[in-house]
Amino acid sequence: MSNSFIIGQYVPGSSIVHRLDPRTKITIIFFFVIIIFFANNLLSYGVLAFFALLSMFTTKIKISYILKGLKPVWFIVIFTFILHLLVTKDGEVLFSIFSFEVYSGALYKGLEISLRFTLLILMTSLLTLTTTPISITDGVESMLNPLRKIHFPVHELALMMSISLRFIPTLMQETEKISKAQASRGVDFRTGKMKERIKAVVPLLVPLFVSAFKRAEELAMAMEARGYNGGEGRTKFRELKLQRVDAFIFIFSALILVVFFFTRV
Amino acid sequence: MDIIFNKVSHIYQPNTPFEFKALENVSFHIQSGSYVAIIGHTGSGKSTLIQHLNGLVKPTSGEVKIGDYVITPEKKLKDVMTLREKVGIVFQYPEHQLFEETVEKDISFGPQNFNIAQEVVQKRIPELLKAVQLPENILQRSPFDLSGGQMRRVAIAGVLVMDPKILVLDEPTAGLDPRGQKEIMDMFYRVHQEEERTTILVTHSMEDALKYADHVIIMDHGKVYMEGPPLEIFKDQEALNNVGLDIPEVIQFLNKLESKFHISIPFRGQSVEQLGKEVAEAFKRGDKSE
Ligand SMILES: Nc1ncnc2c1ncn2[C@@H]1O[C@H](COP(=O)(O)OP(=O)(O)OP(=O)(O)O)[C@@H](O)[C@H]1O
Ligand SMILES: [Mg+2]
């Protein structure tokens, strides 16, 4: 059960990508996501793919593991690809199946969208694979800090995010534990009619909610007991600091960006 | 129903960076009707091991046999419900599995799933309540209004009500008050003696293992480290200390007695009172070899 939940889970390591400041990674990925929509020929996609693959190899995480993490999105990629084949009617007719004509434009467009999608997912999953949730949160908080001036609740948002991220694994463990306990009492989650299967979820959900609420209450009390009273004047334990690697990677990415704009037509 | 583990290994999340070998080449044979204690440091694979007993997890390699039900890595589990009806597991902190509106409904939940007749269940409930020492008027209350200890007892009743042939207990008394612990352990022992039930107890308490079990399996890092009758296992203090365990206090005491006063009283499972008498007599006789 737990085996299917590993998509994008942080894998400890000491590669350059791991050591980068979360803000560096977030910024680069942010720009990557925008830039990818400017690619308009094979060469420009090649540059982006090169960058993504290079980042992937630099993480030193087993490639098979990264690809396995992408598994659930293959479905979406293939789905959009087929959808394109069916609805787009540009260019000339390549061939036809069951009186359905496939256009060259559709093929090209479908491939392009699939490639874009794969690269996007790959880059974002590299972020979560190499960065602990807590440092992603720290990064986001620090990058949103300017918004404080317009009374945007940056600290509260970051706190919410880090608490949710912190409790996702706990909740998953709990789910597994309770579903095992109920399975031992004869609940069958796997087989049976739809109606029975929906009914089987009740003995799982009720204890989960009960324990989630209890946990929330305990956490709130523990925080208050330790003097937490909001973000005002609060100092940080983990200070983010840009290193020389960050500068190096920024320059390198900027170079790639320049190359990218030369390859476009 | 004998339980046989044949070179069982279990790997969590295989082929990922999180791959973890929780069990490695575990083999043993548990005779039907015996009371077995499984002891081991935290993380040694005890909970993983017992989840093999009713097919909650499958071995990554090797073979598990419960009676004539065989679990192998390749084959899909067939009729796993018949197995789960015979093997009742009380998990660590079982009170987390309560969910019904009333205690009565929660206790009857398991039997319903196994299609045990309502009348049979109704007949069992009063005895059960007595066994776990809960008052009858608790039946119509919500399980979520009870104290932690009461919730634990309700959850235990919810497993016992299925009258399993094999009863598996994963640290059933963790977090209870000392008196509650003793009550519950004694209750399990009574339940064990009825109808030749097989009981498997996962515990951190050497005292409980010594008191109730007739066979002890010591686990360390996913492997069977030692195995045998409790009196024999607890002779070897050094071996146990090596894996972060200790011997029961009674035996420690007798060992000290021997090294300090050269009074040797073999431990055969006497009660504390009985031992007290024997020690007093030994002193009176002047056994001391000064
Ligand atoms: N679902 C899981 N995924 C990955 N690893 C797991 C999983 N469940 C358990 N483990 C690991 O397997 C090892 C054995 O766990 P197990 O729960 O069997 O230990 P235990 O002997 O019952 O410990 P305790 O005395 O603390 O209950 C632990 O190191 C644990 O981290
Ligand atoms: Mg355990």
Automatic annotation (TrEMBL), chain A:
One of its GO terms (molecular function) is transmembrane transporter activity. InterPro entries: ABC/ECF_trnsptr_transmembrane (IPR003339), EcfT (IPR024919). It comes from the Bacteria. The keyword Cell membrane applies. The chain crosses the membrane at residues 28-57, 69-87, 118-138, 245-263. It is found in: Cell membrane. Pfam families: CbiQ. GO terms for cellular component: plasma membrane. Keywords: Cell membrane, Membrane, Transmembrane, Transmembrane helix, Transport. Its main location: membrane. It is a multi-pass membrane protein. Forms a stable energy-coupling factor (ECF) transporter complex composed of 2 membrane-embedded substrate-binding proteins (S component), 2 ATP-binding proteins (A component) and 2 transmembrane proteins (T component). Transmembrane (T) component of an energy-coupling factor (ECF) ABC-transporter complex. Unlike classic ABC transporters this ECF transporter provides the energy necessary to transport a number of different substrates. Belongs to the energy-coupling factor EcfT family. This is Energy-coupling factor transporter transmembrane protein EcfT.
UniProtKB/TrEMBL annotation, chain B:
One of its GO terms (molecular function) is ATP binding. The keyword Glycoprotein does not apply. Its EC number is 7.-.-.-. InterPro entries: AAA+_ATPase, ABC_transporter-like_ATP-bd, ABC_transporter-like_CS, ABC_transpr_CbiO/EcfA_su, ECF_ABC_transporter_ATP-bd, EcfA2, P-loop_NTPase. It is a peripheral membrane protein. It comes from the Bacteria. It is an enzyme of class 7 (translocase). Transmembrane segments: none annotated. Residues 6-246 form the ABC transporter domain. Keywords: ATP-binding, Cell membrane, Hydrolase, Membrane, Nucleotide-binding, Translocase, Transport. GO terms for cellular component: ATP-binding cassette (ABC) transporter complex. It is found in: Cell membrane. Its main location: membrane. Signal peptide: none annotated. Gene3D superfamilies: P-loop containing nucleotide triphosphate hydrolases (3.40.50.300). Belongs to the ABC transporter superfamily. Energy-coupling factor EcfA family. Forms a stable energy-coupling factor (ECF) transporter complex composed of 2 membrane-embedded substrate-binding proteins (S component), 2 ATP-binding proteins (A component) and 2 transmembrane proteins (T component). ATP-binding (A) component of a common energy-coupling factor (ECF) ABC-transporter complex. This is Energy-coupling factor transporter ATP-binding protein EcfA2. It comes from Salirhabdus euzebyi.
